[in-house]
Amino acid sequence: MNALVFFRNDKFYFNTCLNSKAFARARFAERLEEKGYLCSKENGVWKFSSFSFSETEEENDFIYLTAPGFDGQTLASIIEKSDEAEKTFALALTVKLYEQSLIQNVKLDAVGAGGIFFSSDFNRALFVPSLFFKTALNVLGSGEYTLNQGLYINPNLKGENAVRYTQCALSYRILTGRFPYEENTYEKQDEDFRDRNFIHIKNQVYGLKTTLADFIDDGLLQNPLSKEALKSFAVKQFPLETLYMEAGLENDGSIPESGKLNSVERKASVSVEEFERQRQRAIEKKNSLVNKKRWIRKHRTPVTAAAAVFAVLAVVCISYYSSWIRKPSTAGLTSLEVVRAYYTGINVLDSDITKHCSDGKSMKERDKVISNIYASIKQMIGMDVNRESQSPAKWLNYNQMSFRIFGLSNFNVNGNPEKLYFYAPSRKEKKSPLLEENGQKLHDSDTAVYSVKYYLVNNALSPEIKVEDYTDTVTLTYKKDRWLITSIESKFTESSYDTEEFCRDYKKALADSSDDLKSAAMVLREKYDFIPADEELEQAAVLITR
Questions:
Q1: For the chain, first and last CA: distance in Å?
Q2: Among 233, 261, 289, which residue terminates a domain?
Q3: CA distance 136 to 144
Q4: Residue 276 falls within a domain, yes or no?
Q5: CA 355 vs CA 244, 359, 458, 485, 490: distances in Å
Q6: In the 8-state DSSP scheme, what is residue 13?
Q7: Which CATH number covers residue 196?
């Protein structure tokens, strides 16, 4: 992946990884003053000044933040591309800058190597605003987050202790060539943090100075819940000179004149062979302890059977009731409102809604189809949030070409346009039963029939846009105290459209209408019958901005 922050045309550029719509919804423009820090070396002394991006630019459908800058590269790029001496120097310099920030009482957030940018001469450095950096990485997903941020920080720590952790992770990388916690997903890394699942550096590097080894291990072992220990550790001074010596740098942290790292001679009270045996024993002991912890967490059994059974039953009952009470209910809804709610469930691919608006064997089969479509779409797009499925009206509002389309448009009941985003109330709301409709008292087994027309638009499961023009005959039955859909007879005709051609037509119509979606939709309807009605576009826009 290209660096999130880079220099071009005398400016820093930061890729937010958001398109214009997402950028606007996230209100990033209001947060341009979010602070990062510039570090400058003046007469041998590092000084810090606040930094913020000043402008935005759009390029390749993404919004970039910009500010005057200087040429150089990120620490992540240096680690990936530079020789060992420059790599070690840059990592050690980062440790020093964090130490200086603590000494000078500068509130410098701990950020990973992808958010730190050094000038070519290493006399200046930029620490990008951490909020922007984290947001962009969350969009990109676990893999990029780990490489650019996750290897360097412990998200469970705050303030000075977070900085101390990052210093120790960087030092661990300098001295061992790897990071203490290297899992590449949030969940696995969080589990490793909880279990302190790393090899202590004192067991990794033969003859390492005790003061440095203890500081690094203590920094990586910080417990977020031990407030006094955190406070005590935060005020300690990092042994920088010892790090420089152990890393093969000069006493001031610079690269030796030879351009290569100094050779480091280490001695210990045991032989290298004995150290290796001790190391293996320590690793085995650590692995055994971690495995036991995880086994216990997974297979924990109650000490007191009766109390445990009661507790489990209580939790299950509470959980079940909590889930049950949030489910949708048609109690208190008219037959027409139940129809609206059911088709809303199809439109947003929510089988919970359709299931609780219907009854009978044939309707259960329809619910299974909706669940299977939802599962198929999720399996296909995986973790890529930029390819998620949206209803036609939401898709047009989002203006995000990578999104897929699945849902209804031009929804009509008995010839009248109806709402497509009508959500049934939850059981928690305890709506009173509907006892009469249209002036007539309702009785068990009463029926109501509606003619429903709509387009089902779908390119979530195929490369082209498939459009099915449906006419449904919907029968509802009044059961006990509410209306439920008990049968649907469907007739439809099918057509298909080229996805790329449609996207081009959409972008052109939007550009020609100065981003007025309703005007663009009017133009598109001349070629595409399935374009949602203006009312549906308005409803979707309101939901998106909530």
A1: 33
A2: 261
A3: 10
A4: no
A5: 66, 7, 21, 10, 18
A6: E
A7: 1.10.510.10
In this model, does residue 122 exceed pLDDT 90? Answer: yes
Q: How deeply is 187 buried, as exposed, middle or buried, from its count of CB atoms within 10 A (0-12, 13-18, 19+)?
A: exposed
Helix H or strand E segment including 467: strand 465-479
Confidence of residue 28 (pLDDT cuts 50, 70, 90): confident
pTM of the model: 0.57
**Domains in the chain, number:** 2
Highest mean pLDDT among 134-148, 215-229, 423-437: 215-229
Q: Dump pLDDT digits (tens) for 230-272.
A: 999 989 999 999 999 999 999 999 999 999 999 999 989 999 9
Token pair for 301: 């059994």
pLDDT in tens, 30-80: 788 889 999 999 999 999 999 999 999 999 889 999 999 999 999 999 999
Which of 227, 246, 261 is where one domain is finished? 261
* Same domain? 217 vs 360: no
- The residues that bridge with 483 in the sheet, in sequence order, are 478
Contact criterion met (CB below 8 Å) for 248 and 262 = yes
Task: Show the tokens assigned to 168.
Answer: 């120790």
Reported as a single tens digit per residue, the pLDDT across 466-489 is 999 999 999 999 998 889 999 999
Residue 340 placed within a domain: yes
Q: Could you list the residue range(s) of the whole structural domain that residue 540 is in?
A: 335-545
Tokens 């060539």 correspond to 177
* Nearest C-alpha neighbor of 86 from the set 276, 303, 279, 248: 248
Beta strands in 131-192 (DSSP E): none
The packing angle between helices 159-176 and 227-234, to 10°, is: 70
Confidence band for 21, pLDDT divided at 50, 70 and 90: confident
Length of the chain: 546
Q: Quote the Cα angle for 191-183-188, to 5°.
A: 25
Q: What is the pLDDT of residue 144?
A: 84
Q: Kindly write down the DSSP assignment for every residue of 19-85, as one continuous string.
A: -HHHHHHTTGGGGTT--EEEEEEETTEEEEEEE---EEEEETTEEEEEEE--SEEEHHHHHHHS-HH
Does residue 273 lie in a domain region?
Answer: no
Query: Is-contact 328 426, C-beta < 8 A?
Result: yes
